[in-house]
Amino acid sequence: MTTIFDQMVILSNGVQMPQFGLGTYKMTEHEQTIQAVEKAVSIGYRAIDTASIYDNEQAVGEAIRHTGIAREDFFVTSKVWDDNQGYDETLRAFERSLTRLDMNYLDLYLTHWPVASSYVDTYRAIERLYDEKLIRSTGVSNHHASHLQEIFTIANIRPMVNQIELHPRLTQEPLRMFCREHQIAVTSWSPLARGQILEDATLIAIAAQHGKTVAQVIIKWHLQNGLIVIPKSVSFDRIQENSEVADFELTLSDMSMIDALNRDERTGTDPDSF
């Protein structure tokens, strides 16, 4: 039987990135993080998203080793934080992340936010890491089209992934279209809008029709839109629930109704003003 874990997005360089994974934002307690990652892996998760600012890279790496599953079977993403950006600074920050994770390479490394004075040089460093085969794919996070266009002016290798806030109240269609045109895969962070839309009447009605939870319907909406999605949870039940979305399909009507919930409403910061 096909599971959600079998679904892949092919990046512009041919690398296969799981379309569904585990986000680890706010997993700051060491043992809790290890247990959550181990639980996710036991269910079938193989994509794990972390960042230096999350302060859990060591726990994520430890949990992956505990599973006994080969490193090459995982897709691990991390990010360089704002005060470590710039060309040389990014290279050093990457080494520290790699040491904390206790890994020889990352599958994807991202600029966390587009720091105005340094995000272009930060991406140049990410390109170098790719050239040196220390990362398998390049990317950015929280970049608008204007940021990406600036990077295009210097890039030998364009970003392969842009991780952005995206959910039914912030559908980001213009930016998604721009990314599609330039072969940049989009990853949704805060895919459930930090729980703020779980009581929405439209979503509740659609969930009831499919015998699913609202969270499962939202995750399916992301997947059917071709988005990579990384819901976060330390709850074992939620980690399991979030993954049980391969056994139903949203109709075109369902998708249109969910699209119509857009308000261009963020739960986080606008990259132009962060």
Task: Determine the structural class based on helices, strands and strand pairing.
Answer: alpha/beta
Oligomer: single chain
CATH class type? Alpha Beta
Number of strands: 10
Shape designation: globular
Question: What portion of residues is helical?
Answer: 25-40%
Distance between the termini: 44 Å
Could you give the order of strands across the largest sheet?
3-4-5-6-7-8-9-10
- CATH-derived architecture: Alpha-Beta Barrel
Query: What's the mean pLDDT score?
Result: 97
Share in β-strands: 5-15%
Account of the 3D structure:
With 274 residues, this protein is of the alpha/beta class. The chain has one domain: NADP-dependent oxidoreductase domain (TIM Barrel). Helix content is 39%, strand content 14%. The protein has 10 helices and 10 strands. α2 links the parallel β4 and β5.
